[in-house]
């Protein structure tokens, strides 16, 4: 077996050699420029990377870059078997790797294969299962969806979807949500909870699974990924950041290739995964699609290159279910665990015995198998699962008081889009409730497997990222209960029949109309929608329903439950529509959260985590039948609207309140120095990317008459010296709860990465010199304060 250097490799920085070819060096013993120092020599690792390793000569110029057959050999060039870099023990992973190394030394090759191979579809208690290794006390690992709680748990909390959590812009609620999900998973004996979701990011507003994640801004999604991971793992379970990467649509997701340019990859799609890795996420799920023609689950560049080397990911990569295509290619490409271990028919098995044979024949090295198993074991030790972990029991009642988080996220994620003054409600004499979405699914709240229908009130999308509701408080239930205490009469039409609304809605002081839009995972088709939405219109003739009610009532409030943006122009053209309440996806606390906002016990504080356009074509991206070249590059969602100078209907970050906030006194200070990131790699990337290099503050005052919370948002524009970039990019936010007349300080701490762009030539993050535009405001188009940060 080859000797390995016990160093962790830094990402490469490409430097131009005397011959003009791009070459590279990096890692421990690297000066941060083109040079290896202190007895280290620059050795080529593969097509993407080189590293400074202990050697006889100090290298002074990248032009002398050589390949080497040193005993401290690096991963081989693409084409040959991949040789892993071991061990990776840095930071909080060090102790876990030490334990994993001890364990590995005691087990057989078959044991290692068992650790990294699923037992097959439907062959265990969880959606994914491996085999135990008794000699080291290692259990049958239980992997279970998903991003909003324990799928198929019989008495678990159905937490709010990621997109609702994002709409709160409340880091504490997001973290608590993760912590509670982790606690429930552990209570059920689930070792790996398959979330959070950072891909799809949401470049397509129609994308079927966007609602599982945190929206199309990488910074907001990155924060969501980081704190959810931290919350989940603080409860003693392993998180799984998925789906890595470029799985932006459901249509043809398992045949198409996503061709993403290097800068776009780094600045958009990789960004949230980097944050999850920085938070020590235990596992990453590779996606169904190809990337630049190579299956994501065997892509050396994105798995070994980007994820493991550049981001310093210490955990393991598992396949999405049935996303593995080859035995050897996946192993050498960087995949570490196959799930579920067979195809859905149980006929095709690519690891298990096949992995054993491939190792025996030398197609896959023993060191690679050790690396896979060690990564899995290290994640198990890292999360403390080697002691006192409960037995698998998906029937355990683990809900505790977690519904408080569901209600808080459902409520604080409600975005008030329009209000002429009808809200908050003031004890109306008669309320009309209209629409099938006002009430529970009459066939039963969990009657559709994996929520694969849009019948009754909508609380989440459909697919593997769902959980069964333990109960469901529909809007009509909660409004009726509240109305009773106020002496309000409620009339209800629980269908979408436009012809009969008059008898319910005319004469009511206010008429609430409930409309929806749904989407989900492509293995289920609902009402002709095969995952991705076919359009951005409300379902069930929602526009016509609102129109019919507005014909007979002057105080119409439209409540929207939706997986993502819908086009509201038809509704907004109706003068009798006095308010639009964007209630998102509230899960089981739907009605309670809505009542909190409608009646003003809580002022709305949610802000849109995506843009609502005037027309679907305004987004500038579309679902592809074949491959997707990502030709829009960096310009998705508000980045596109800003660049193309298109007015959205409601911009990213927008949301009204029952009070007013004034902004004053911007300060901006920075210690940032221009140039590339340097230093060793820690989980997430080069260490200095996470250094705080600038602070921006603003004073926010509640100048209205009721208490409320404001999400102050920080956007930056790169200086002219940087390559073309979006006019503004979110780089900070903070939510302040303020009593009437109270003042608070919004403080934004910017990391070096927040001021950087990805330099393709240098293969590094670079802080450009010059003047950065700094804007703080209530949305991406309501920028109240502006200033600059100057970097020399
Ligand atoms: O659940 C683990 C990951 O699985 C992926 O989704 C799969 C989903 O979990 C599974 O229920 C579904 O199975 C169906 C299968 O596709 C279909 O061919 C067969 O006829 O019926 C099966 C049962 O309904 O397959 C999904 C993949 O196609 C998710 O992408 C991932 O996020 C999950 O974590």
TrEMBL record:
It is found in: Secreted. GO terms for cellular component: extracellular region. Keywords: Carbohydrate metabolism, Cellulose degradation, Glycoprotein, Glycosidase, Hydrolase, Polysaccharide degradation, Secreted, Signal. Its main location: secreted. Its EC number is 3.2.1.21. Residues 17-53 form the CBM1 domain. Residues 63-85 are annotated as: Disordered. Residues 63-78 have a biased composition (Low complexity). One of its GO terms (molecular function) is cellulose binding. PROSITE patterns: CBM1_1, CBM1_2. Pathway: Glycan metabolism; cellulose degradation. One of its GO terms (biological process) is cellulose catabolic process. It comes from the Eukaryota. InterPro entries: CBD, CBD_sf, Cellulose_deg_GH3, Fn3-like, GH, Glyco_hydro_3_C, Glyco_hydro_3_C_sf, Glyco_hydro_3_N. It catalyses: Hydrolysis of terminal, non-reducing beta-D-glucosyl residues with release of beta-D-glucose. Residues 1-17 form the signal peptide. It holds the Pfam family CBM_1. SUPFAM superfamilies: (Trans)glycosidases, Beta-D-glucan exohydrolase, C-terminal domain, Cellulose-binding domain. Belongs to the glycosyl hydrolase 3 family. This is Beta-glucosidase cel3A. It comes from Coniochaeta pulveracea. The gene is CEL3A.
